[in-house]
Amino acid sequence: MPLLRVLAACALILTATAASRADPIVIKFSHVVAIDTPKGQAAVKFKQLAEQYTNNKVRIEIYPNSQLYKDKEELEALQLGSVQMLAPSLAKFGPLGAKEFEAFDLPCLFPDYQGLHRITQGDIGKGLLKRLESKGIIGLAYWDNGFKIFSANRPLKTVDDFKGLKMRVQSSKVLEAQMRALRAIPQVMPFSEVYQALQTGVVDGTENPPSNMYTQKMFEVQKNATLSDHGYLGYAVIVNKDFWEKLPADVRTGLEKAMTEATTYNNDIAAKDNDSALEAMKASGKTDFYQPSTEERAALCKAMEPVYEEMQSRIGAELIASIRKEAGSIVQGMK
Ligand code: LMR
């Protein structure tokens, strides 16, 4: 090869290398929780692994704590391509037209983590993610947070204690129905506004796993909480389909490997994180945590039972039945 052509080829390679170093593909990953939550930490883990496995061809920019977008806005931003990756809670997929995900909000549905994981890591979970494709979205994984507890400024031991309370919920019709079944008044509100709404009395109470309650300092403005574990809160990590499919194949493979490992990491730390958040809140002495008896919890579940029938046409009777069967649901208080 003539020297000039060799030099030209070398220059091309050098330019390409420099360009790939200088211009990594940027993935903006937006979420609404604090960094020291299961999702916050798993996002950081994913960033480290993704950059490593793609040889820095990708740069993940994480925007936690609703810094960039609140709940509803982030979904719009994903569809518009302003962000590429999100991990919204499964309760927030309704506005995307994926109402089936609200099945995860059904009260007292999952008997334990094993039953839950048979759904999120099994065929039913995969099938649900697949349905997002028609909305221009790819679902990559499910990440756990944990089981929710109720909180307010009065003890919540019996169903009557909920009567008339304004309770903040995520944007899920199932959660609205759940609060109405307890004769409380549901108020849909973005996560980023909950602390202030509780502080100023715009709402009286809410529900969340301990990790969210702790890291958003809700425990400072809630005198009482009931360790009801009455519902699940988890996430689906999602990406814009167009963006994902246009990625070079080797990059996608690296990202998939990183996601698999970040998912394992998330699901390993989630329960522990929630336990330590609960301990920290107990130690603060600001909130009184009540452990309901089996009978008290069953009475709450029983009161929320009508939600299943009410939401059947929204979610699909078949889907509810198959989740219940696979999860080994023994909804306490249900027939
Ligand atoms: C909430 O809005 O309460 C949660 O979905 C926040 C989150 O992402 O965990």
What does this entry look like structurally?
- The protein has 335 residues and is α/β, with parallel strands linked by helices.
- It has one domain: D-Maltodextrin-Binding Protein, domain 2 (3-Layer(aba) Sandwich), CATH 3.40.190.
- Helix content is 47%, strand content 16%.
- The chain is built from 14 helices and 11 strands.
- The chain has a 5-stranded mixed sheet with strand order 2-1-3-10-4, with helices on both faces.
- Helix 6 (173-181) links the parallel strand 6 (166-169) and strand 7.
- Helix 2 (38-53) packs antiparallel against helix 10.
- The longest helix has 36 residues, at 249-284.
- It is globular, with a radius of gyration of 22 Å.
- Residues 10-16 have low confidence and may be disordered.
- The structure holds (2S)-2-hydroxybutanedioic acid.
- (2S)-2-hydroxybutanedioic acid binds next to loops.
List its traits.
D-Maltodextrin-Binding Protein, domain 2, single chain, five-stranded mixed sheet, binds (2S)-2-hydroxybutanedioic acid, alpha/beta, 47% helix, four-stranded mixed sheet, 335 residues
Explain the layout of strands and helices.
Blueprint: H1 3-22, E1 25-30, H2 38-53, E2 58-63, H3 71-80, E3 85-86, H4 113-120, H5 123-130, E4 137-147, E5 149-152, E6 166-169, H6 173-181, E7 185-188, H7 194-200, E8 206-208, H8 210-215, E9 224-226, E10 232-240, H9 241-246, H10 249-284, E11 288-290, H11 294-304, H12 306-310, H13 312-315, H14 317-327
Parallel strand pairs: 1-2, 1-3, 6-7, 9-11
Antiparallel strand pairs: 3-10, 4-10, 5-8, 5-9
Bound molecules: (2S)-2-hydroxybutanedioic acid.
